[in-house]
């Protein structure tokens, strides 16, 4: 079940932090980054985040989280994490779909991931996000940035801003 959750509550922040640590440890290994910045986030940082958090619970246990922030013309997915025990079960797809449903029409939806994170790249492409550009993080991680337009009157559409 997906519901909005608040990491300002300590118990919730602890649960989110546990999923963050498990999921990002796998990603760090996958992309070959020993000093992966998302693994350094603290419980206190989660508690003070201004992001909106959507949690996916199974039998009352938090197993995945998508967080995002909205600006006037866009909405940015800031993290999408799934507990490794629940990989490849459609949970990430369900969270992204719920995010898209909640964001007002007319906004550009954006997300970034490591270029080497093939499962995440595949997920966003399957959901019609279009790679718009590449960049490099301060840690030297190659990133691919995706976007998708949340259409004003009709289905969500995608169009490349520029080719990768």
Provide structural commentary.
This protein is of the alpha+beta class and 164 residues long. The chain has a single domain, classed as Aminopeptidase (3-Layer(aba) Sandwich). The protein is 29% helix and 32% strand. The protein is built from four helices and seven strands; from the N terminus they run E-H-H-E-E-E-H-E-H-E-E. It has helices spanning 10-31, 43-47, 91-102, 118-126, and strands spanning 2-5, 52-58, 61-70, 74-82, 108-114, 130-136, 142-149. Strands 1-2-3-4-5-7-6 form a seven-stranded mixed beta sheet. The longest helix is centred in the N-terminal third of the chain and has 22 residues, at 10-31. It is globular and about 35 Å long. It starts with a strand and ends in a 15-residue tail after the last strand. Residues 152-164 have low confidence and may be disordered.
